[in-house]
Amino acid sequence: AKKIPGTAHLHFDESMAASGADYAQLGAELREAIHDDQLFLLYQPIVSLDDGRVIGAEALVRWAHPVRGTLAPDSFIPAAERTGLIVPLSRWVLASAFRQLAEWIERYGDDAPEVLNVNISARDLREPGFATMVTDLLAQHRIAPEKVTLEITETVALELGDSVAHLHQLRESGIRIALDDFGTGHSTLSLLHDCPVDGIKLDRSFTQSAIDGRVPVSAAVIHLAQALGLYAVAEGVETAEQAEQLLALGYIAAQGYHFARPLPPERFAESLRPRDRE
Ligand code: C2E
Ligand code: CA
Ligand code: CA
Ligand code: CA
Question: ipTM of this predicted complex?
Answer without folding.
Answer: 0.98
